[in-house]
Structure formats: structure tokens, C-alpha cells
Known about the structure:
mainly beta, five-stranded antiparallel sheet
Amino acid sequence: MFEVARTEIVSGQQFLKGQYQINTFGISCDEVMGEEGLFSKFLQLGDNEELPEPWRFLEGAVGAPKFVSGSAPGVGFRVQMISD
């Protein structure tokens, strides 16, 4: 579980304040979750700021929003709101 403290925009995708479940693939949960994790760092970016290389938001992904590594196929994570 990951808590988003206030509504944020990452790569044009709005993440409302609330509890989220994060599912990783090809990367450890520790690298994605927590205060020093990738998702927390993404939330700290400015609304129009690009994700750090090699990360990108997977446009048109079915289901929950997905972030993938452009340099390592099969590496990424998806973020799904479970409660507000």
C-alpha cells in the first residue's frame, strides 16, 4: 500500500489523494515504494516535468496507470487506487 497525501499529476495522469496498490514487474517493490522509491520521486515532480530517463508513462495501457523503463523491457510498475 502507498498513500498519496494530496492530488498530484505525473505525466499528465492525475493521482487523487488516497491509498494505492502498486504492482511491480521486473523491479523490486523496495525500488518503487517508500519515501525514496521511484513512485514517490515521480509524485514530487512538477506537473509538466518529464519523468527521469529511462522512465515513461505507458499511454493507453489497459487498467491501472503503468510506468515502464525504456531501457529495460519488462521492467515497470502499475499504480491502482483502492480507497480515498
